[in-house]
Write a structure and sequence with these properties.
With 335 residues, this protein is of the alpha/beta class. It has ten helices and eight strands.
Length: 335
């Protein structure tokens, strides 16, 4: 993986501090989701993205506000990076009426269409063709938008991955396929069931698509790679596959202690914590330690207030069950 001073992107101290704070908010929100789950206040399972923050934050920083993003069931970080607040995300996990989807989505289906976050998807790989479709729409309209599909390494062995790459290459669609390779497809090491070393990037040449393997824990490296790929897509250069190497700090889901991962592997990756790498970059930039501490304190305050707000929020309105069923907001069957 690349060193702390790698990455061609020019990111100033102020911007980097902002990216760091955004990652800190996400990290604390994930910890809050973990604690609320253990307290019995989050129903259903959750798939935490602690450790993946740099992928979502770095990519979002390189995108336009009107670009489209599609995520997996491990998508809290993508929703927040695109503008969803910790309060509305936690309220959704707690089945509250103020939740991002008014308690109809839960942890695995966070969506904020107004911010271009077109959903988290529980079916592995199912959203990759949808991202291609959104990119096709952008191309037809000449909007200059790009669509981005985030997915895990396990999705690279799903048919939809290959179908989406093939069609996107044939039509030169403005779509980015970003694999968050955390080494495990649920509980199975991806290397044990995949013939190539890089499950996403090594497949891309078969479809004539450029690919890059990057340090997914370095927010500057991620921003640089996504910026270059997005500019290529906007200029008519077609899709790019980016394989971001990262690591989850928790198990696959909240019922998984992650005991199958070797202790030395976990320790090695914990030393590559995205927040620690960003702190090191901030130090290189000469940002005072008290400024970083202040960012951490702001993040702690934001999340503490979000937890309190979500706990105090009312339950869902039964009438909301019949909204957002169709594009026109109605629920009646249409012929």
């Amino acid at each position: 993986m690349t060193a702390v001073d790698s990455g061609a992107a020019v990111v100033g101290a102020d911007e980097l501090l902002g990216l760091y704070e955004q990652m800190a908010v996400i990290r604390r929100t994930e910890k809050a989701a973990h604690d609320l789950f253990l307290a019995g206040l989050v129903k259903g399972t959750t798939h935490l993205a602690a450790g993946h923050e740099a992928v979502a934050v770095g990519a979002s920083a390189a995108l336009r506000p009107d670009d489209y993003v599609f995520a997996t069931y491990r998508g809290h970080h993508h929703a927040m990076a695109r503008g969803a607040t910790p309060a509305e995300c936690l309220a959704e996990l707690m089945s509250k009426g103020t939740g991002l989807c008014k308690a109809k989505g839960g942890s695995m289906h966070l969506t904020k269409a107004s911010a271009g976050m077109l959903g988290s998807y529980a079916i592995v790989g199912a959203h990759l063709p949808l991202a291609a479709g959104a990119a096709w729409s952008a191309r037809l309209r000449g909007s200059g938008q790009v669509a981005v599909a985030f997915f895990g390494d396990g999705a690279t062995n799903i048919g939809a991955f290959h179908e989406a790459l093939n069609l996107s290459a044939v039509w030169a669609l403005p779509v980015l396929f970003i694999c968050e390779n955390n080494l495990y497809m649920e509980y199975t090491p991806i290397g044990e069931v995949t013939a190539v070393a890089n499950p996403a990037a090594d497949r891309a040449p078969g479809y004539g698509i450029p690919a890059e393997v990057i340090d997914g824990n370095d927010v500057v490296v991620v921003k640089d790679a996504v910026h270059r790929a997005a500019e290529l897509a906007r200029s008519g250069g077609g899709p790019t596959v980016i394989e971001a190497l990262t690591y989850r700090h928790f198990g696959h889901s909240r019922t998984d202690p992650g005991a199958y991962r070797p202790a030395e592997e976990v320790e090695r990756w914990m030393q590559r914590d995205p927040l620690e790498l960003a702190r090191a970059r901030l130090q290189v930039h000469g940002v005072p330690g008290e400024s970083v501490t202040a960012a951490d304190e702001r993040a702690a305050r934001i999340v503490a207030e979000a937890v309190a707000e979500a706990k105090a929020a009312p339950g869902p309105d039964p009438h909301d069950a019949f909204t957002d069923v169709w594009a026109d907001g109605g629920s009646a069957w249409r012929t």
